[in-house]
């Protein structure tokens, strides 16, 4: 329902379709920012949760829960836990024998695919000195990755196309802005290096300028409102089922629930007891009215 000039108008199929498109666009945007965030900050568990299984790698809630528990036990971020496990399996060493009995062993192929893709993005940062070119290459690589197996008529496919155009323009604007500041400066002092503790060490030196641009892009997004409707942040969005995702809240919920009872959206879980209370009140009034007639 929507209000216009004091009157209440029913929601039309067109409005619902527009709302769904906006939500798919928002999700595509979050995917890109999550890949970029994980690229510069290996401790961003929330970013990893959003993209671990996007696109579908077979790393659903079960795999994420195992990773989460392993990272808590080792006291490291989830991404570093996954990276450490894959490196141990790939290169052998003292921990290789123990890894044969690791619960993550059944997900080696899928986790390796994910880690290798993040490594690929890191190589772009480290090998291409021009941040404008590197940024475009990163966006293009993530774009092709997310579009894998989807047709150009897919809502998510179209959303990814639009997000890439928007982010590419933002990156260019940030680079131009940084260049203007650098040119106007007369101090001769080089720009501050990014903090090493928060950035993947493999890319911090070679891709210093690109890292600075990505951090600026992430900072811009961090201070912007994620959605006009704050209530959307509190429940699983059933309209995004077409993308084949699992809610971040669901991923972090522990212990894992059985497959037979998938969690319902928070809005539905709240609405059910409310409806039950209304029914009880109506029944009570009905009984009272009946007794009065007698």
Radius of gyration: 24 Å
CATH-defined superfamily of the largest domain: PCRA, domain 4
User: Can you summarize the main beta sheet?
Assistant: 2 strands, antiparallel
The order of strands across the largest sheet is: 1-2
Helix content: 55-70%
* Count of helix runs: 12
Stretches where pLDDT is under 50 for at least 5 consecutive residues are 1-11, 234-239, 256-261
What is the rounded distance between the termini?
A: 42 Å
Strand content: under 5%
Q: Which CATH architecture of the largest domain? A: Orthogonal Bundle
- Characterize the overall form: globular
Tally of strands: 2
How many domains make up the coordinates?
2
How are helices and strands ordered from N to C?
Answer: EEHHHHHHHHHHHH
Average predicted local confidence, pLDDT: 76
Structural class assignment: mainly alpha
CATH top-level class of the largest domain: Mainly Alpha
The name CATH uses for the topology of the largest domain is: PCRA, domain 4
Fold topology:
Elements: E1 2-4, E2 7-9, H1 13-40, H2 45-51, H3 61-74, H4 78-91, H5 96-99, H6 108-127, H7 131-147, H8 155-184, H9 201-204, H10 208-222, H11 248-252, H12 266-293
Antiparallel strand pairs: 1-2
Family: Belongs to the PARI family.
Organism: Bambusicola thoracicus
Protein name: PCNA-interacting partner
List keywords for this structure.
disordered N terminus; mainly alpha; 2 domains; PCRA, domain 4; globular; single chain; two-stranded antiparallel sheet; 294 residues
Question: In summary, what is this structure?
Answer:
The protein has helices at residues 13-40, 45-51, 61-74, 78-91, 96-99, 108-127, 131-147, 155-184, 201-204, 208-222, 248-252, 266-293, and strands spanning 2-4, 7-9. It is mainly alpha-helical and 294 residues long.
């Amino acid at each position: 329902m929507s209000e216009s000039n004091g009157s209440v108008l029913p929601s039309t199929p067109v409005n619902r379709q527009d709302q769904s498109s906006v939500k798919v666009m928002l999700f595509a945007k979050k995917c890109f920012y999550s890949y970029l965030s994980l690229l510069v900050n290996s401790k961003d568990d929330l970013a990893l949760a959003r993209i671990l299984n996007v696109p579908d790698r077979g790393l659903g809630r079960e795999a994420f829960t195992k990773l989460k528990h392993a990272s808590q036990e080792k006291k490291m971020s989830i991404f570093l836990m996954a990276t450490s496990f894959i490196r141990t399996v790939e290169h052998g060493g003292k921990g290789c024998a123990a890894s044969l009995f690791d619960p993550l062993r059944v997900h080696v192929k899928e986790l390796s695919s994910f880690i290798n893709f993040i490594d690929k993005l890191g190589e772009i940062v480290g090998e291409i000195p021009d941040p404008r070119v590197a940024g475009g290459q990163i966006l293009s690589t993530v774009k092709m990755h997310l579009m894998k197996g989807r047709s150009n008529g897919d809502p998510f496919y179209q959303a990814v196309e639009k997000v890439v155009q928007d982010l590419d323009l933002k990156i260019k604007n940030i680079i131009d802005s940084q260049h203007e500041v650098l040119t106007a400066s007369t101090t001769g002092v080089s720009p501050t290096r990014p903090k090493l503790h928060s950035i993947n060490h493999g890319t911090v030196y070679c891709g210093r300028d690109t890292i600075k641009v990505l951090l600026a892009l992430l900072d811009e997004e961090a201070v912007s409102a994620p959605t006009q409707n704050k209530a959307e942040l509190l429940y699983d969005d059933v309209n995004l089922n077409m993308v084949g995702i699992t809610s971040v809240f669901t991923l972090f919920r522990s212990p894992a629930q059985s497959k037979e009872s998938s969690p319902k959206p928070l809005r539905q879980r709240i609405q059910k007891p409310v409806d039950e209370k209304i029914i009880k009140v109506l029944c009570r009034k009905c009984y009272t009215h009946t007794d009065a007639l007698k």
